[in-house]
Amino acid sequence: MARVLARPIESRVRRLRLRVRGTVQGVGFRPFVYRLAREMRLSGFVLNDSEGVLIEIEGLDPDRFGEAIRTRAPPLARIDAVDVLELPPTGGGRFEILDSLDGRSATRIGADAAICAECRRELTDPGSRFFGYPFVNCTQCGPRFTITSALPYDRAQTSMASFSMCDACAADYVDPESRRFHAEPVACPECGPSLSHPVAELAARLEGGAIVALKGVGGFHLFCDARNDAAIARLRRRKAREEKPFAVMVRDIAAARQLAQLTDAEEFLLTSPASPIVLVEAVAGKLSNLVAPGLGRIGLIVAYSPAHLLLFDELSRLSPHCPPALVATSANPGGEPLVADNADAELRLSAIADLIVTHDRDIVARADDSVMQIVDGAPAFIRRARGFVPEPVDLGADGPSVIATGTDFKNTVCVTRGREAFLSQHVGGLDNAEAIRFQREAATHLCSILDVTLEFAVCDLHPDFRSVRMGESFGLPVMPVQHHLAHVAAVAAEHRLAEPVLGLALDGHGLGTDGSSWGGEMLAVEGHRWLRAGSLMPLPLPGGDRAAREPWRMGVAALQAANRIDLARALELAHSGVARLAAMFNRGMRTPVTSSLGRLFDAVAAISGVRLVQTYEGQAAMEFEALVRAPRCLPGGYAINDGVLDFRPLILCLAEAGMCGTDAADLFHGTLIAGLADWAASGAASLGTRQVALGGGCMMNRVLATGLAQALRECGLEPYLPRLVPANDGGVALGQAAHARQVIMAKRASGEQSPTCA
Amino acid sequence: LSHGAGGRAMGQLIEGIFHKAFDNIWLRAGNDQSAFTVPGGRMVMSTDGYVVSPLFFPGGNIGSLAVHGTINDIAMAAARPLYLSASFIIEEGFPLADLERIAESMGVASRGAGVPIITGDTKVVERGKADGVFISTSGVGVVPDGLDLRADAARPGDAVILSGSIGDHGIAVMSKRENLEFDAAVVSDSAALHGLVTAMVEAGGRQIRLMRDPTRGGIAATLNEIASQSKVGFHIDEEAIPVKPEVAAACELLGVDPLNVANEGKLVAVAAPEGAKAILAAMRAHPLGREAAVVGHVVADDDCFVQMATSFGGGRIVDWLSGEQLPRIC
Ligand SMILES: [Fe+3]
Ligand SMILES: [Mg+2]
Ligand SMILES: [Zn+2]
Ligand SMILES: [Zn+2]
C-alpha cells in the first residue's frame, strides 16, 4: 500500500494555530516545539495555558509541523488531540516560548518516570555537575505526581518549593535549548535535596545482610540481599509476612535476564519509563528460595531512580562476581500503607529496618511500585500506582464529574473529569486506620490535582465497607453500584465497548443485589441497563471470610455441594477442622452460599492437597496455577442449566481419583476454561453480541485469562481483558464511576431529576 | 392459645400465669397502674423490646433476658433499678406451657435481682403477626448523688475495663438456632449487673466516666458508639480480652468475630486512669466481674477509630456491623 504521497512543496506562507491537548506540560514539550519550529524555519510562538499547549506557526508548508508534533513528541508526552485553525499570516520573525496568557497552566500532571538515558550518562560522568547526584532529573524523567500538591504544575506547588535553584540550575531552567527547561524538580548537589547517609554505607550494610529502609520516589522501600536466606527470613519475621512473594530489584535489563526468561514484551515493560515490577518466569536457583516460595514466577523491577543506580554500582564494586539483586518491598508494617514521611519512618520502620535512609525532598503523594504481567500477549496490571498515576482512562464521551470509592480490598479511588477517568494510586486494604486515612488523602490529592467540582459519589453495595462510608462522606448524592457490574463496566469503559456486552466477572466475593455472595457472574450489560444472566453453581461458604483464608473449608463445602461429604475423610488428616465441619454439615448446619470462582479455586486447591490454609490472599490459587503444565478438559466435567454453570462433576472427579499436583491443576484449568467458554458462548448468543468483557480477580490467573480469551476467539467471540486498570478490585472504582455516569446521563436524557442506581 | 372469641377467659388465664409468676403487692392490688414513692435524687428510665430466636437457649430464655436487659440498661447509668413493667405480644397458638416457663423465669430473675415487675400488659395476635412471643420491659431507677455518667465523657488516657469474657450469649443463641454442637456447651451470660455496678460505684464512682452493656453488635459496636459520642478513639489489646475457649472455637468455626457477638451479662466501663485500679479490684471481688480486665485505653482521634493491636504488632480497625457478618473478602 502506498504511504504518504509525495506532496508538492507549497510556495505560499501560511499561519496555523494548533491547540494540543493531553499530557503536554512538564514533559519538555515546549522546548521540543521550539526546536522543531526552528528546524522547519517557522516563526510564531508556543505557550502553556489552562487547556494544554497553544502553538502558532507561520512559514512555508506548516502542515508538516502538525504531523511531526505527533510522531516526534517527547517520550513522556501523551497527545490526546491536536485542533488546527488556519489564520492570516502576520509576518515572520523569531519563534518564541511565551508565558501563559492567564497565568494558569498545567491541566494534567504527569506520572513519575524512571531516570532517562541522558541523566544516567550525567550521573556517571565525572565532568558533569550531576556526577553521583542521587536526585538528578530533567523534563524527560524524574518525579511528578509524587511531589505535586495541586494545579498548576510548577515548582511552587511541588515539594521542591523549599529548594531554591543555584545559578547553574536556574540557567538551565530558562534555557529552551536545555533538557531542564522548566523541569520543575531540577536540582544539583549545589542546591537540591540530599540523602541522609552516603550510598557507600548503605551498600556496605546490605552486603553485610542488613535490612535497609531507603526513601525513594513514592515512599520507602525495604531492601535486603535477595540471595541471603537469613536476611530475607528476618525481613519476613519483622514484617509479619510469612510467604507472600517479594519483588527483586536489579540494576538493569542485563541483570534481569540472568534471573528470568524474559519475553520481548516483558523486557519492554521492565525498561519503560513507568518502570513497574513485572512478574516473569524465574530461572531456578538464582535467588533465595524465600523470595517467592511455591511460585515459579517472580516480580522483577529495574533500578529506576538515580539513587538506586548509585546503590547498585556500589554493590557491584563490593562484590563484582555476580550482578547484585535486592529484595525490594514497600516499607510498611504488615498490611498498612507504605511509609513516605521521614518522621513516620522512624516511628513505624525502626522495628523492621536495621538502617533507615531518608532524604529531604518530601513525598506529597505516596505511590507504591506498580505491578504488571503479560496476559494473553499484552500487558496487564496487578497493582497500578507509580509511573501510571495520574494518567487518565478516556471514557470516550463527556459526562458529569463523579468520585467512586472502590471496595475495601486493593482500594483505589476514581475521579472523572469531562471524558476522562483518573484512577488513584493503589491504596490497599481498608482494614486499618492508616489505610483508611491514606484513602482520604489519595482522594483529596486527586481532586486537587484535577481541580474538579464533583456531582455524585459512587460506591459498592456492601453496608459494612469503609469505602462505602467514605462515599457517603462527601455530602453528594450517593449511587451504589454492584461489585461485579463494576468489574465488567471497568472493562467495557476502557475498551469503550459499544453495547451490548456480555460480561464475565470471575472473582472472589462481592455482595449481590439479592444480598447473597456473588463472584462467578455472567452479566448482560447494555449501557446503563444490566441483568444477571447467569452464575456459577453456588457453593456453601462455611465461616464467611474465614473460608476465604482457609481453603480446607471450601474443600469440605464443595464436597457437601456435590453430595459426597464422605469424601472429606481424605482431608481429615490434613486439617483438624475438617471432621468437625463435615459433622456440622451432616447435622444440617446452614451457611451462606457463594457463586464465587475464587472460592471454587480454593476448594479445588484444598481437595487436591495443594493448600489448605493461606498465609496471604490468593495463595492457593497462585500455587495451583503454578502447577499447570498442559491444561486438559474433562469430558462431562461441567453442566450448564438455565445459565448456571456447574463444576460439581469435575470436583467429584478430582476428589474420587485423589488427583493431586499438576494432574489436578491441568484438569481443573482445562475444564474450567472449556466450561466458561461454553457458558459465555451461549450467553453471548442469547444476548446477540460477540463482545465478551472479562473482569474480576481471577483474571490475574494467566493460564485462565489467556486460555479463556483464546477459547472465546475460537468460538468466534471478541474477548476483552482489562489493560489500563487491574482486573482485581483495584479496577472496580473505574467501573463504578463509568456505570454511574451512564445511569446519570440516561436519566438526564429521559428528563428525570435525581438518578439512583444499584 | 387462641385469639378472638373467648378472649375474656383467655385473657384471665394469661393474666393468672403472670400474676402467679411475678407475685407482689402491686400486682395483687389489681389496678391498671401501680403507685410507688420515689426516693430523692435523679431518676432514670429505660425501655427495651425483646425479640429472640430461639426463645429458649442454654443459660436463659426471652423472659430472663427481658428482665436482665432492662435492669442493665438502668444500671449502666450507675443507677439502682427500682421497678419494672412488662408487656407481651403473644402469637396465637403459642404453647401455654412455654408461656408459663417464660413467666416463671422472669419471676425468678426479677426476685433474684430485687427489682419487682409491678405492672404489665398482654396481647394475643393472629398467627403470623408475631413470632412466638415478643416482650417489652421498662424500668425506673435512681442515681446516687453526685454521679452523672454520659456517653460523651470518655477522655484520652482513660482506661477501658471489660467485666468478663465476651461472646457467650450470642454464641449460645447461634448454636441453638443452627443446631450446632460443640465439645463444651456454650451458655448465655445473661445476668443482672446492678450488683456489680454498686460495687464499682463504691470503689470509685466518681472515676467512672461511663458504662455500657455490650449487647447486640458486641463490644465492637459499643466501643464505636462511645468513640463517636465522645469524639475519641480506642486502642484495644486483643490478648487482654477474655474469650472462653469454647466460644473462641465456635467463633472460629462460624467465622464470626467475638468482638461483634452479643453479650447479656457484661459491661464495659471507661474510667479515669487514676481510678481504674480500685474499680478493677472491686469488680474482680464480685462474682460477675471475676474475669474483669483493662482491655485498652482511650486515645485522641478525630476519626474516632477503634483500633486493635494484633498479635504481630499491626493494628486493625474494629468496626461495627450493620447486621449479621456478611463476607467481605473479594
Ligand atoms: Fe472483586
Ligand atoms: Mg435498651
Ligand atoms: Zn533525565
Ligand atoms: Zn543546582
Walk me through this protein's architecture.
The complex is a heterodimer of chains A (758) and B (330). Chain A is of the alpha/beta class. Chain A has four domains: 13-97, Alpha-Beta Plaits, CATH 3.30.70.100; 199-372, Alpha-Beta Complex (DHBP synthase); 388-533 and 726-749, Nucleotidyltransferase, domain 5 (2-Layer Sandwich), CATH 3.30.420.360; 534-720, ATPase, nucleotide binding domain (Nucleotidyltransferase, domain 5, 2-Layer Sandwich). Chain A is 32% helix and 20% strand. Chain A is built from 23 helices and 30 strands. In chain A, strands 6, 7, 8, 9, 10, 11, 12, 13, 14 and 15 form a ten-stranded mixed sheet that branches. Chain A has a seven-stranded mixed sheet with strand order 27-28-24-23-22-29-30, sandwiched between helices. In chain A, strands 16-19-18-17-20-21 form a six-stranded mixed sheet, sandwiched between helices. The longest helix of chain A has 27 residues, at 661-687. Chain A is globular and about 90 Å long. Chain B is globular and about 65 Å long. Chain B folds into two domains: 7-143, 60s Ribosomal Protein L30, Chain: A (2-Layer Sandwich); 159-317, PurM-like C-terminal domain (Phosphoribosyl-aminoimidazole Synthetase, Chain A, domain 2). By secondary structure, chain B is α+β, with helices and mostly antiparallel strands. The termini of chain B are far apart. Classes of the chains: A alpha/beta (758), B alpha+beta (330). The A-B interface holds A 240, 333-336, 351, 407-410, 430-433, 436-437, 462-466, 483, 507-511, 517, 519, 541-549, 577, 580-581, 584, 587-590, 592, 594, 598, 617, 697, 728-729 and B 178-181, 252-256, 301, 303, 305, 307, 312-317, 319, 321-323, 325-330. The structure holds fe (iii) ion, magnesium ion and zinc ion (2 copies).
